[in-house]
Specification:
Blueprint lengths: L7 H24 L15 E7 L6 E7 L5 H28 L17 H10 L7 H5 L15 H12 L5 E11 L3 E3 L4 E2 L11 E7 L3 E3 L2 E10 L10 H27 L4
Antiparallel strand pairs: 1-2, 2-6, 3-8, 4-7, 5-6
Helix pairs in contact: 1-2, 1-6, 2-5, 2-6, 5-6
Length: 270
């Protein structure tokens, strides 16, 4: 398929972002591996089972816990990947205007992330983006879901806001229980509670059982470890790799779509 030279820049930004996401994914996997701390026969676990005592009841709290915090360099790399993706949206709009000879004489060209379809239409009407490109931008539905209209995407809109904030994106280790059973419970049993596992992102742990002292519990559970976003709002604890890939996929699809529209308007040899 033919391509327009002006679109090389946004495509490059998306490639850089995908490279960064792959490196992050490898870094996250490596983080959860045991780290050697001395002779090769010894090692330090990043996660494991601990038993604490409830100071109010005296019961034992059997927990699954991640002991280490994620290194700050991973937050910086996540932020860099996010900025590359966000910038590719802006670069695609600029490339489209250049490709159809409609670069504005004034006004900044940015992809119009907005709060509603009405807000988007007002921005397009009064902004620098030429009318020939409005429909392809409207099809992206770059606003959150809401009452009174269809479409929108809450997560994509929120991640675009994070990229625009220009602050380092926080990360946190999270765990999701795939399955769990307790094959045997024996000993001096006077109290047993098996709560539904719920991850505590503040303390990096979840309670698997609450029992009276002297109770022996055999735990058999499978846990999926992930790295989530440590940000307020709907993206809190959302898996970082998944949302970054989703944002990059949308950016790549938009770049292809608006480039195709430019080729339809002006032809591939323009």
């Amino acid at each position: 398929m033919s391509s327009l030279p002006a679109f090389d820049r946004p495509k490059e930004s998306i490639t850089w972002a995908r490279d960064a996401i792959q490196e992050l994914d490898a870094d996250f996997t490596n983080f959860f591996k045991p780290k050697p701390t001395g002779p090769i026969t010894y090692g330090k676990k990043v996660y494991g089972k601990v038993v604490d005592i409830d100071p109010e009841t005296g019961h034992e709290l059997h927990k699954f816990k991640v002991f280490e915090r994620l290194p700050s360099v991973l937050s910086r790399r996540t932020t860099e990947a996010l900025i590359h993706i966000r910038e590719s949206w802006n670069q695609a709009v600029y490339a489209a205007c250049a490709s159809i000879d409609k670069l504005p004489k004034r006004g900044n060209l940015h992809f119009p992330w907005r709060s509603s379809p009405t807000d988007l239409n007002a921005t397009l009407k009064h902004g620098p983006i030429p009318a020939e490109l409005w429909d392809v931008i409207r099809r992206e539905e770059p606003y959150p879901t809401g009452n009174g209209y269809d479409g929108g995407d809450d997560h994509i809109k929120e991640i675009s806001k994070l990229a625009n904030d220009k602050h380092t994106i926080g990360l946190t280790a999270t765990a999701r229980v795939i399955s769990y059973t307790h094959p045997t419970i024996h000993g001096a049993i006077s109290f047993v509670s098996i709560p539904a596992p719920k991850w505590d992102s503040v303390n990096n742990e979840m309670v698997m059982a609450v029992v009276s002292p002297g109770t022996n519990v055999e735990h058999n559970y499978e846990v999926q470890l992930q790295v989530g976003l440590d940000v307020p709002g709907p993206l809190r604890d959302v898996p970082a790799i998944g949302i970054l890939n989703a944002f990059a996929d949308r950016a790549e699809a938009f770049t292809k779509s608006i480039e195709a529209e430019c080729m339809r308007i002006s032809g591939p040899q323009h």
